[in-house]
Amino acid sequence: MDDALRPVGRTLLRDRAYESLREAIVRGDLAPGALLKDADLADRLGLSRAPVRDALARLTVEGLVETKPQSYTRVTRPVTRIVRDAASVVRVMHELAARTAVPLLGPEAIRAMREANERFAAAVRASDVEAALAADDELHQVLVGASGNHAAAATIDRYTPLIRRVERRLFGDSGSCGSAELHARLIDACAAGDAEEAVRITSEIWAALEQLADDATEVAEVTGIPAPAEA
């Protein structure tokens, strides 16, 4: 954990602090329930407190951090409803991106998707969760980028970390994080210019992640962190 947060450069300090902290939370280097002190985080990142406070405020809005005034700031635990809601939103945005992008894809885009899926399959076989999720992101980013829908891209970027936290924790137990075969079918649909089939397969891929929400509570329970009080 000591090496998880490395000093960042002096440009775009709020964004760099945000990205570093978000990555540490999603990877589990800052575990659910971990107390977050801006002075400590600022020291570890080589920053002043101001950009760290801004980053923590942004992460609070996004559901990765929770704060009780005059009491604590800590990493949230996965909550079934929140993870399921995030997965549903991400699924719909990827469906929209696929529907828009497929008619626009050229040979280079298809090749990039196939190469990403090869890396994904190899990473799954090696039980390398970080490489698998990176390759998965690369594959789907081809469609998101080709769609040109910046609102969809921003929504995906905001809510995917809530899902990735659970994926990383369950990867070792499940033995995979998605299906290279489903990816291959998606790529074939894209290569054939069949937007509706690509959307259907995209929905199937991301709907499976919604099932991870059912495991989110179990993941939280093993951390020993009490559930938040009901409003």
From TrEMBL:
Organism phylogeny: Bacteria, Bacillati, Actinomycetota, Actinomycetes, Kitasatosporales
Entries under PROSITE patterns matching the protein: HTH_GNTR (PS50949)
Origin species: Streptomyces hydrogenans
Name of this chain's protein: GntR family transcriptional regulator
Domain HTH gntR-type: start-end pairs: 11-78
UniProt keyword terms in alphabetical order: DNA-binding, Transcription, Transcription regulation
One Pfam family from the record: FCD
Listed InterPro entries: GntR_C, TF_FadR/GntR_C, Tscrpt_reg_HTH_GntR, WH-like_DNA-bd_sf, WH_DNA-bd_sf
Xref: PANTHER family: GLUCONATE OPERON TRANSCRIPTIONAL REPRESSOR, TRANSCRIPTIONAL REGULATOR, GNTR FAMILY
